[in-house]
Write a structure and sequence with these properties.
With 124 residues, the protein is mainly β. Helices cover 0% and strands 47% of the residues. It has strands at 3-7, 11-13, 18-25, 33-39, 49-54, 61-63, 71-76, 81-86, 95-102, 118-123. The strands form two sheets. The protein has a six-stranded mixed beta sheet with strand order 2-10-9-4-5-6, with no helix packed on it. Strands 1-3-8-7 form a four-stranded antiparallel beta sheet, with no helix packed on it. A hairpin with a 6-residue loop joins strand 5 and strand 6. The chain starts with a strand and ends with a strand. The mean pLDDT is 97.
């Protein structure tokens, strides 16, 4: 049974930092391309936007232009966990953050499995 559990979200002030975690069970992330996606408050679930993704070897990372230089994605295959270090947070980063396995080189989810997400709220 596939399960993704996101955690680490919080309410912070602009300029603050957070680290999100996504614990995955049901498949090994070592053989998957993984990504963090977010759903802004005024958007529907199907309008989630890709934020950061990492290749199955961990050697390739890609970021949305809006977070480049501020966010860092990483993973620990032994813990089957994906992380998102978020620095210099801005109010526009306010969203629910989800992780997912994606088709490599894209933001497209490979499976229709979703966790509950973790809420990040950034105040100015």
């Amino acid at each position: 049974q596939v399960k993704l559990v996101e955690s680490g979200g919080d309410s912070v002030q602009s300029g603050g930092s957070l680290t999100l975690s996504c614990a995955v069970s049901g498949y090994a992330i070592s053989s998957k391309c993984m990504a963090w996606l977010r759903q802004h408050p005024d958007k529907k679930r199907e309008e989630r936007e890709g934020v950061a993704r990492i290749g199955w070897t961990g050697g390739t990372q890609r970021y949305a232009d809006s977070v480049k230089g501020r966010f860092t994605i990483s993973k620990d295959d032994a813990k089957n966990t994906v992380y998102l270090q978020m620095n210099s947070l801005r109010p526009e980063d306010t969203a629910i953050y989800y992780c997912a396995a994606v088709r490599c080189g894209t933001w497209d989810p490979q499976y229709n499995y979703w966790g509950q997400g973790t809420q990040v709220t950034v105040s100015s």
